[in-house]
Specification:
By secondary structure, the chain is an alpha/beta fold. Helices cover 48% and strands 14% of the residues. The relative contact order is 0.08.
Length: 463
C-alpha cells in the first residue's frame, strides 16, 4: 500500500477547512487540519506533510510569523499561503520569507487542487534529488559515512597514520563496526584515490582457513612442499608487494603462524613453505580484531611481542551506539542502496518516529545489524514510509525501557510473572493519570519523545 501524499491545512475557519479537506481527499491525499498557530511547527515536525496550506490570519499569531518559524526550524515542506488580502505587498513578503505559493480567498477548488498537485510533485522531486545528492556525497571515504565527532576524530587519526606510510596498523572494534572499511580507507589515503585502484589490497580472513592452508595462503609454497603442491605458488605477501594486506580477525591466528608473521614484520622478508630463500617484500599490514589482544596475550592466547609490534599504530572503531547522530544518515544510505539493488520503484523513507527509535536503539550488531534491518524493510515492506509498527519488537521494547533509565529503585517480579506489554501499558496509564492526560508532560515524565509517547498510547489503546 502506497503512502498518500500528506497535506496539512492551517485555518480557523471550519467551513473552509471542511471544503478543502473533502476536495483533496477525493483527489487521493491524506489531509489533516490544525486551527492553532501554536501547534503548527510540532505538527509539521511529527507528520512531515508535503504541502502546508497556511492561513495568514490566525487567532494566536499571524501566518507570516508561523512561516518564519517553519523556515527558522528548517522544516521540509511546501508552504502555500491563504489569505483574503489580495495586496501585492503581503504576497511579496510571504514569498520572500520562503512561501512556495500564494492564494487569495475566495478561491476556486479546482485551482487549489491544481496548485497542490504541482507543489506535491515539486516537493517529491526535490526530496528525491536531495536524497540522491546526499547519498552520492556520502559515498566518499570508502563508505565511511557519518558526521559524528567520533567518526570525524577517527578520520583525522587515520589521515595522520596514512600520510606516515607506517608498516603495520592494528584496527580494533566490535563485530559489525566496519573495520574492513576503515582498512580500505587507509589504503585509499595512503596511495591516493586514483592510484589506489592499481595498488594491491588483499584481504585474508584468519578465522576462515585452517593453519596449514593459511600459512600457504600468506607465505606461498614451493612445488612438492606437501602432497597437493603441484607447482610453485606465491603467497599474498608477494602478491601484495608494494600495497596493503588486510589480516582480518588476527586474534584467531595460530600461535605458530604468529611467530612467522612477526618475523615478516620485523625483517620484511617471507619464506615460502618448502622454500630455501628469503623473498623481500614491501607491504603495509593492517590487522583487525574484535578481541582484546592485550588480555589474550596475558592468558597466553596471543603472542605479546606480536601485539606490541602491531599496536605501535592502532585505531579503535567506535560502536554505533557511541555515534548515534550517524544512525539516520546510515539508515537513509542503506535505504537508497537496497532500493537500487532490488529495483524498488518507490522512494522509501523513514517516519520521524521510526528514525527516533532507530537512533535510540543500541545496535549490538552495529552497522552490519542496521544494514540487515534496512534491507529487510526494502524487500518485505510495500509501503513508501517506514513507521514504528514495522520495526522489530525488541527495538520498541528497548525504547520503553530506556525511557525509565532514571529510575534507581528495584522492581520485584511477581511470582506469576508479567509481560513487557503489561508493564508498558501500566507505566503509560500512570504517567497519563499523574499529568491529567497531558501527553507532553507524560512524555517528559517517561523520558520519551512526544511522538514516541503518542505511538505507544495508540499501540496500547489508551487514547
Amino acid at each position: 500500500m502506497r503512502v498518500l501524499p500528506r497535506i496539512l491545512i492551517v485555518d480557523d475557519d471550519e467551513l473552509i477547512v471542511t471544503t478543502i479537506t473533502r476536495s483533496l481527499q477525493r483527489e487521493g491525499y491524506d489531509v489533516r487540519s490544525e486551527n492553532s498557530a501554536l501547534r503548527v511547527v510540532e505538527a509539521i515536525r511529527s507528520w512531515s506533510p508535503c504541502v502546508v496550506l497556511l492561513d495568514i490570519r490566525l487567532p494566536e499569531r499571524s501566518g507570516i510569523e508561523v512561516l518564519e518559524d517553519i523556515v527558522r526550524n528548517e522544516l521540509r515542506t511546501q508552504v502555500i499561503m491563504l489569505t483574503a488580502d489580495d495586496t501585492a505587498e503581503t504576497a511579496v513578503k510571504a514569498m520572500k520569507l520562503g512561501a512556495a505559493d500564494y492564494m487569495t480567498k475566495p478561491f476556486n477548488l479546482d485551482e487549489i487542487i491544481i496548485v497542490v498537485r504541482n507543489h506535491v510533485a515539486k516537493e517529491n522531486l526535490s526530496r528525491e534529488v536531495d536524497y540522491l545528492r546526499k547519498v552520492a556525497g556520502e559515498r566518499f571515504d570508502r563508505q565511511m559515512i557519518g558526521k559524528s565527532d567520533a567518526l570525524t576524530e577517527l578520520r583525522a587519526e587515520l589521515d595522520k597514520i596514512a600520510r606516515a606510510h607506517v608498516s603495520s596498523v592494528l584496527i580494533t572494534g566490535e563485530s559489525g563496526t566496519g573495520k574492513e572499511l576503515v582498512a580500505r580507507y587507509l589504503h585509499q589515503v595512503m596511495f591516493g584515490e586514483a592510484s589506489s585502484r592499481t595498488v594491491p589490497f588483499i584481504g585474508v580472513n584468519c578465522a576462515a582457513l585452517p593453519e596449514n592452508l593459511l600459512e600457504s595462503e600468506l607465505f606461498g609454497h614451493e612445488r612438492g612442499a606437501f602432497t597437493d603442491a603441484k607447482s610453485d605458488k606465491k603467497g599474498v605477501f608477494e602478491l601484495a608487494n608494494g600495497g596493503v594486506i588486510l589480516l582480518d580477525e588476527i586474534g584467531e591466528m595460530d600461535p605458530r603462524l604468529q611467530a612467522k608473521l612477526l618475523r615478516v614484520l620485523e625483517e620484511r622478508v617471507v619464506h615460502r613453505v618448502g622454500g630455501r630463500e628469503d623473498i623481500p617484500v614491501d607491504v603495509t599490514v593492517i590487522a583487525t580484531t574484535n578481541k582484546n589482544l592485550a588480555k589474550a596475550g596475558s592468558r597466553g592466547e596471543f603472542r605479546t611481542d606480536l601485539f606490541f609490534r602491531l599496536s605501535n599504530f592502532y585505531v579503535h572503531v567506535p560502536p554505533l551506539r557511541e555515534r548515534r547522530v550517524d544512525i539516520p544518515i546510515l539508515a537513509d544510505y542503506f535505504l537508497s542502496l537496497f532500493a537500487t539493488r532490488y529495483n524498488n520503484k518507490f522512494m522509501k523513507r523513514f517516519s520521524p518516529d521510526a528514525l527516533h527509535i532507530l537512533s535510540e536503539y543500541d545496535w549490538p550488531g552495529n552497522i552490519r545489524e542496521l544494514r540487515n534491518v534496512v534491507e529487510r524493510f526494502v524487500v518485505l515492506e510495500s509501503e513508501e514510509e517506514i513507521v514504528p509498527s514495522m520495526l522489530p519488537e525488541w527495538m520498541l521494547r528497548q525504547k520503553v525501557a530506556a525511557g525509565g533509565s532514571g529510575y534507581n529503585g528495584e522492581f520485584t517480579l511477581p511470582e506469576k510473572g508479567v509481560s513487557i506489554d503489561d508493564l508498558e501499558r501500566n507505566l503509560l496509564q500512570q504517567a497519563l493519570e499523574r499529568t491529567n492526560h497531558n501527553k507532553a508532560q507524560a512524555a517528559k515524565l517517561l523520558h520519551l519523545s512526544y511522538d514516541t509517547l503518542r505511538y505507544q498510547v495508540k499501540k496500547h489503546g489508551l487514547e
